[in-house]
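hey so i finally got around to running the thing on that chain from the lab meeting. sorry it took forever, my laptop kept dying and i had to restart like 3 times. anyway pasting the input first so we r on the same page abt which one it is
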Amino acid sequence: MDGIDPGAPGVRAQMQRLIYGFFTSQVLYVAARLEIPDVLAAGPQTTAEVAAATKAHPPSLYRLLRALAYLGIAEQRGPDTFALTERGELLRSDTIGSLRELVMLLAGPESWRAWGHLEHAVRTGEVAWDRAFGENTFDYLAARADRQAGFNAAMAEGSRAFVPTLLAACDFTAYARVVDVGGGSGALLAGVLAAHPRMRGVVFDTPAGVADAPAELAAAGVADRCEVVAGDFFRTVPTGGDAYLLKSVLHDWDDDRCVAILASCRRAMAAHAELIVIESVMPAVVDGAANLAQLVMNDLNMMVCHGGRERTVPEFSALLNAAGLRLQAVSPCAAPSTVAILTATPSS
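ok and heres what got predicted. didnt touch it at all, straight out
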């Protein structure tokens, strides 16, 4: 047989790790749900101590803690003593840069159920989430305050972590007023405003999307320089901005809806204004590069949960052109990130 022997131990082990991938996601989800990293943050503890704090079944919890030790979330320091690792710190609820809310979102029951319809989505082109729940993701969240809060928290968590990368990649000094379209809790814009004391801003999203924005802006000390406006970005967005931000918005939607969002931005923009699109960029050809794992899997998640997609630079350019905008520059963020800053201006 030519090529790799499918029976080779190394190849089989690699495939088994892939097959068991969903086991890992659920281990992380349960650990986050039980707040085990928060408990272990106080120092090494026995299974009984962790069980008492999390109200879990000790023998079953012990087996979960062993799995967390294997995954590098915890360290087993004896037959029945576990400590939190540096990696595990990222699952704490009170750590800057935490990924806990992302785990809760992507490995939670709704995503779990929607991904069960991946085959249907691939066969038909229909949105798996809509088949699973009978409504689209954003309508589902808006009708359930606790789930909307979880989604908002996950998005804010990622935005806070991204602020330093954005400030390093994009010069905001020329902008007096920045409008963050689909800005959710305002975590991203709060970071930009904090770095530019003379700048003013507007956070714009649906009523459910901006529910946490006043508190977020107040906590960052920028509430006096930032408006919170609720609305529908498919119809209109606030006018008067020197720059319009769109971070991780376009990948949620199909091409027609993206053009509608971009056209709303274009109508609001003065001739001098700039649109700053912040999105992961799909390469023309995908290989096994480690930094592409999140990108290609998130592309599938957009298909499953929203009907959206990750896009190449030419695809972004085509969307912008269709909305009366012209792509002026593409600035990749520092490696290994696949995110880029795409700057566009009105084409007429």
